[in-house]
Specification:
The complex is a heterodimer of chains A (328) and B (342).
Chain A: H1 2-18, E1 32-38, H2 47-60, E2 63-68, H3 73-85, E3 90-94, H4 99-111, E4 115-119, H5 124-130, E5 137-139, H6 142-157, E6 164-169, H7 177-189, E7 193-198, H8 201-205, H9 211-220, E8 224-228, H10 232-244, E9 253-257, H11 261-269, E10 274-277, H12 280-297, E11 303-305, E12 309-311, H13 320-324
Parallel strand pairs in A: 1-2, 1-3, 3-4, 4-5, 5-11, 6-7, 6-8, 8-9, 9-10
Antiparallel strand pairs in A: 10-12
Chain B: H1 4-12, H2 17-33, H3 35-38, H4 41-66, H5 74-90, H6 95-120, H7 124-143, E1 148-149, H8 157-163, E2 165-166, E3 169-170, H9 172-189, H10 191-201, H11 203-208, H12 213-239, E4 241-242, H13 250-260, H14 272-291, H15 298-318, H16 320-330
Antiparallel strand pairs in B: 1-4, 2-3
Helix pairs in contact in B: 2-14, 2-15, 4-9, 4-10, 4-12, 4-13, 4-14, 5-6, 5-7, 5-12, 6-7, 6-12, 9-10, 10-12, 13-14, 14-15
Classes of the chains: A alpha/beta (328), B mainly alpha (342).
């Protein structure tokens, strides 16, 4: 906690200083950082991270190079190789390909004194190995995030043993799938009967294609009590599928993730019951702080859980102005 | 009196009959295995609400492929025109202006594609791949990466006109049907369609007989751009949302709908009726398999099997000529024994 406070204080100092000093005097001046943003430029699960990273880069005077992978693990690896070839000061990587896939590349970077840190999906093995040289993690513990979503669904919807539920997720993806696994395991542990459907790559890219699939499932299972997903854009379309299937708001407890405009509408109208808030802005801002402080002062890597709460129809109202700006 | 053979031949002259038969068989199978879903009107209303953008895109692409060209940039037109419409509704409160500008943006992108392909001479697969990145990237720049919620758009007449409901029936299915009928007439009854098929079959011969390939290809790209923009209008209004990445999942699905429908990948032969059936099959298959109760990682694999079965079924229904080819393939004589049938 002390470390977190000291980092926050450093960040605040840097921000304050940024208003009075020239760019070349800022703490991060001269540092170049490659940053894997995750999805596609501007998608709901990526934009706040981009904005957070840009804000921190501007505050510290750091040169930020953004990389977008469309959440494809193989693209993340090739982008890491490209970043290494440019010999920057720091690289932030997404954990989706897993520790083993990144191991040799990170070892090479460490030899060359490039600070590596991670976000959104943890690389526990590598973090343990290289935390002394600044390898940190800013993101949700994915399994715990899924678990929390399920717990809040159970609490919000009064779900009980024997109730029927659907999990629509991406468990086939090694790291990203952990949040879906957490959600699934928690619902099963609570005694619910849970069906699982894997999200197709087409739905992953354009989630409006999920509507007839979820609608068909809802019609097949008239007694369905809950739907869970940890896919931000799919969360946004569950309300429409419920409507198409003739279900009223609140009839089915829906647990999702992130806060895209459609998800906000779904929360306001009561179609979506809970949505995990990862506070993506922090996942952009904090790795830049990590990079600058590790590069300048040799501070070690920090593990920061950026999201420990859910948004509900009751709490959404206050967040809307910030969501509209791409901050929440 | 007609013999059974001549009756079959006459039936097979009906455009798109094999693929429509496959579609009906699929619906019948799903009705048998998941009656609670496929005997309910709601699933069909969901299809009729969600198929139209894909159908409009696929119908437009059918004409381009008939001319031996391809357009890979339409997902970005869906995003760009969606942004134009979304911006005009969200920020300017001018939905009709948005509609006109969205269609104009599609036409402009289509025209530029046409110029690059027909006038500059860049192969369409390369030119439109490049413009896909260009217009997709530009959309992100223009929208600043933001999505727009258009939750109040259902109070506007433009929403009622394009995606409203007549009882439970989504209006967009009538628009999509209208587009398909118009394109069928263009392809089969108008000189423009005839020229496209001619160009797709043999561009040199087409030129000799007086067809202007540059002009006709440019027109086809413009038409594709306008239709992609119209698909975007339907998608954006139906979703009551502009998503910065919208359209991205349609590329393979639209192409699959066109090719399943019987349009030749080499050009010169195309079927709008087949494309309509192909579009419904594409959207229906995964929903149908989920409705059968299949779960987990198997769904995707079974979707592939059903697609394959649809294509094979299509070939078997199609007739003696294809059957001969199949027999030759089975006997390993294709290309080896020029003597023909044993």
């Amino acid at each position: 906690m002390k470390r977190l406070l000291s980092i926050a204080a450093s960040g605040a100092l840097a921000l304050t200083a940024s208003t009075t000093v020239h760019a070349e005097d800022k703490l991060g001046a001269g540092i170049t950082m490659y940053f894997q943003m995750g999805g596609n430029p501007g998608d709901g699960a990526t934009l706040p991270r981009t904005n957070g990273a840009r804000a921190a880069a501007a505050a510290f005077g750091l040169s930020l190079k953004e990389q977008y992978s469309g959440w494809q693990p193989e693209t993340m690896l090739s982008q890491f190789r490209e970043a290494l070839a440019a010999s920057p000061g720091c690289i932030e990587i997404m954990g989706h390909p897993g520790s083993d896939a990144f191991a040799s590349l990170v070892a090479d970077a460490e030899k060359r004194n490039i600070i590596i840190t991670s976000g959104n999906s943890p690389l526990t093995k590598l973090k343990d190995q290289y935390s002394a040289s600044g390898f940190g993690y800013a993101g949700v513990d994915l399994y715990e995030g899924g678990k929390l979503t399920a717990q809040k669904m159970i609490e919000y919807g009064g779900l009980k043993k024997g109730d029927q539920a659907l999990e629509y997720g991406l468990r086939a993806q090694a790291e990203r799938g952990k949040s879906d696994q957490g959600l699934y395991d928690t619902l099963v542990a609570a005694g619910l009967k849970v069906d699982y459907i894997e999200i197709s790559p087409e739905v992953d890219h354009d989630s409006s294609l999920a509507v007839p699939i979820i609608t068909a499932y809802l019609l097949k299972h008239p007694n369905l009590k809950a739907i869970g997903t940890q896919h931000g854009n799919v969360t946004a379309f569950i309300g429409k599928a419920l409507k198409d299937a003739g279900r009223k708001p609140g009839e089915v407890t829906v647990g999702g993730i992130d806060l895209s405009p459609s998800t906000i509408d779904g929360l306001k109208k009561g179609y979506i019951s809970v949505s995990l808030d990862q506070q993506l802005y922090l996942q952009g801002f904090l790795p830049v702080v990590q990079c600058v402080l590790s590069k300048k002062y040799g501070l070690t890597g920090l593990t920061i859980n950026t999201g420990a709460g859910v948004v509900t129809p009751k709490s959404i109202g206050a967040l809307v102005p910030l969501i509209d700006k791409g901050i929440r | 009196m007609a013999t059974p053979e001549s009756l079959r031949a006459r039936l097979l002259r009906i455009e798109g009959l094999p693929i429509n038969a496959v579609l009906l068989i699929l619906v019948a199978v799903f009705m048998l295995v998941a009656p609670e879903v496929f005997l309910s009107y709601r699933i069909y209303m969901s299809f009729l609400a969600n198929v139209p953008p894909l159908l409009v895109l696929a119908a437009g692409l059918t004409l381009l492929i008939a001319a031996g060209e391809i357009d890979l940039s339409f997902p970005s037109i869906v995003a760009l025109s969606g942004w134009v419409l979304g911006y005009c509704i969200h920020d300017l409160h001018a939905p009709w202006l948005g509609l006109v500008l969205a269609l104009a943006a599609g036409a402009l992108v289509g025209f530029l594609n046409g110029v690059l392909v027909a006038r500059v001479g860049i192969p369409s697969i390369i030119a439109t791949l490049a413009t896909q990145f260009l217009w997709g990237g530009l959309t992100t720049v223009l929208s600043q990466g933001l999505s727009y919620s258009l939750s109040d758009v259902d109070e506007l007449f433009v929403w009622t006109l394009f995606v409203g409901r007549i009882g439970p029936l989504p209006v967009q299915c009538l628009w999509a049907l209208g587009v398909a009928i118009c394109l069928w007439f263009v392809l089969n009854r108008r000189r423009f369609g005839e020229h496209l098929l001619f160009i797709g079959d043999n561009v040199k011969v087409a030129e000799i007989v007086g067809v202007n390939p540059k002009r006709e290809k440019t027109r086809a790209f413009v038409l594709m751009g306008v239709l992609a923009a119209f698909a975007s209008v339907l998608l954006t209004l139906e979703n009551q949302n502009f998503f910065n990445t919208q359209g991205g999942g349609y590329l393979l699905e639209v192409m699959a709908a066109v090719f399943i429908g019987g349009t030749s990948v080499f050009g010169g032969k195309a079927s709008v009726v087949g494309t309509v059936a192909g579009s419904f099959i594409i959207v229906m298959v995964e929903a149908g398999i989920v409705a059968t109760g299949l779960q987990g990682f198997w769904v995707r694999a079974v979707v592939g099997v059903v697609f394959l079965a649809a294509v094979v079924g299509h070939l078997f229904i199609q007739g003696p000529q294809k059957a001969t080819t199949r027999r030759r393939l089975l006997h390993g004589k294709l290309g080896l024994n020029k003597g023909g049938e044993p």
